[in-house]
Specification:
The protein is built from 1 helix and 2 strands. With about 45 residues, it is an alpha+beta fold. A hairpin with a 7-residue loop joins strand 1 and strand 2.
Length: about 45
């Protein structure tokens, strides 16, 4: 269900999320992804 949202990235690591936001994002951009360390949790990355 979450896959339909452009801000949800199910297969991305933290360092890749940071790079993506720095390269393509702007102030206020964000993305959410599943936590790699706490199964069932999510991580929000914000620029």
């Amino acid at each position: 269900m979450l896959k339909q949202f452009r801000w949800f990235h199910p297969n991305i690591w933290g360092i890749d999320a940071e790079s993506l936001l720095m390269e393509r994002g702007f102030d206020g951009s964000f993305l959410a992804r599943p936590s790699m360390s706490n199964q069932g949790d999510f991580t929000l990355s914000v620029r």
